[in-house]
Amino acid sequence: MSTLDAKLAQPYKLLHEGKLDQALALASRIFQQNPGQPPAIEAMRLICLCRQEFDRAIYYARKLAESAPTDPHARADLATTLMHAKRFDESVELMRAVVRDHPDQDWAHALLVAVLHECGRYREAEQAARDGLVLHPHHTPLQFRLASALMEQGRAREGNDVLQALLRDHRDDLTVAMQLATTSLYEFPCEPARVAAAHLNFGRLLEIGSFTAPLRHDRPAAGAARSSPLRVGFLSSDFRRHSVAAFIEALFEHLDRKLIRPHAYFTRHHGDDVTARLKAHVERGGAGAFATVGVLSDEDLARRIALDKVDVLIDLNGVTTSHRLGVLRLRPAPVQMTYCGYPATTGLRTIDYRLVDSITDPPGHEKYLAERPLRLDPCFLCYRPPSEAPAPAPHSAHADGRVVFGSFNMILKVNAGVIELWSRLLRRVPTAHLMVKSLAFTDATTREDFAARFIAAGAPADRIQMLPPIKEQGGHLAAYHRVDVALDTFPYTGTTTTCEALYMGVPVVTLCPPAEQSMHAARVSASLFTAVGATDLIASTPDEYLDIAAGLAADPARRAALRSSLRDRLIASPLMDAPAFCRRFERAVVGAWEAWAAGR
Description:
The chain is of the alpha/beta class and 600 residues long. It has three domains: 3-151, Serine Threonine Protein Phosphatase 5, Tetratricopeptide repeat, CATH 1.25.40; 230-382 and 580-597, 3-Layer(aba) Sandwich (Rossmann fold); 403-576, Glycogen Phosphorylase B (Rossmann fold, 3-Layer(aba) Sandwich), CATH 3.40.50.2000. It has helices at 3-16, 20-33, 38-50, 54-67, 72-84, 88-101, 106-118, 122-135, 140-152, 156-169, 174-184, 192-208, 243-254, 273-282, 298-307, 325-329, 416-428, 444-456, 473-478, 496-503, 520-532, 542-553, 556-572, 578-597; strands spanning 230-236, 260-266, 289-292, 312-315, 335-339, 353-356, 372-375, 403-407, 432-437, 464-467, 485-487, 508-511, 538-539. A seven-stranded parallel beta sheet has the order 3-2-1-4-5-6-7, covered by helices on one side. Strands 10-9-8-11-12-13 form a six-stranded parallel beta sheet, sandwiched between helices. The chain is globular and about 75 Å long. The N and C termini lie far apart (53 Å). The model has no long low-confidence stretch (mean pLDDT 92).
């Protein structure tokens, strides 16, 4: 190791520990002593990037690229820095140049696809992946990114085919296994056994992929009193402006601190205004702790949780891209659970319980889970609507007499079965239009492809409207003023989108097949509707779905009554009764710990 590298080890250590101010101060001194040395420049770029000081990070990235004009990695670092700063056009142009100048570098092709994906240019990402695979046909990251690009366009079946081919050649690849598991949730028709097998395979690979053995915990002596309050850890990357926050805030606010002391572990580097609000709830009166731990490795974070003497650890991510299931594999707490953030099993046997309810996971569904179901009836969720939500519109009648069906679910949920059924609905109701809003519709080619799929299914093109995302929460919810009836996706139904539509007075039609033909992801909306007392909006077959939606379209008086009453019904329901939900939650968590302590 050179002298300079030895000096830089300390700021990198501080960075790893989350001490960003100290890391920057020390790296700055080293840089001033070595202003032209690439390692010193790179340290400044990386630390500034972690601090979200994007202009400074770009400055050092440019300086690094200028110091090594023939090095494709330096130019690629500049491209990714520009991408993080949301200067997407510059980032894409630079990465295209790197690929053009160095076509033999397979990693450069994969990075170009990643940049295009991050920019929301999914069709271009697909084409760049296919171009790269012509030159590098067996490059796993390129194949993986091709699958991701296809799925972001709502082409889950095609993406799954790519992943299945990958898995045949890479049976022990955890990333491929994870993507196959998550993609299986979107396919229609749902095959519960296949979905469960994909998740259990992911859990198996995660369990064998580490040489670190899980921690062991001694049970209390017989008759020993339980520590009070119980230390309950919550592990998530989504303590921020995110759907999970809408279902965890009321819990943090209303937990009985005589029973439970919350420890929140936020696994990102930076938060936002919602993070600050959640932190205040957790730390209220000094009876809780909130830690930002994004820089810690799984092993370090597991040690941190164990040192905090957490009794019950609850994962709020599940099998999502930002998961930290590797921490739970190490079992830093004697009792471990997963909740809220993901609609299927984690496949991980070191997680003891999955918090659900009797509608999402009816008796018999245990066979699909690595965990044991712990049911929080009547509903496993407690919703907190955004403070920016406008009032429901008094009516949504359109001047030309049309009826607008709407869906604000992510496009990945809009599979071939959904498109076929919605197209049948448009043909059945000649005055109806369909409004679909999705992040993917920032990309023009994705919009064209989406419309073409509806046209192929027999839907009239002039009655389909595609909206890009609306950044402001209030504006997003106000878009429901233009919707008469919301259409739920299947077999992966809405959760936050369903709650938002109901809160804005818009009825949602959902499809919930019989228990033996469906899993948790297909049954969440049914649980929400049951809690609100709107079971008449639940269909058990596609034909019944059409009948309910067409019936609402033909009955403006019923729609008006629902628009004026749904918010109040939601507020009065178990879905928003935070104190009652917290008492059920506390009983379940404390009871699970006591069962462990008693050796049951």
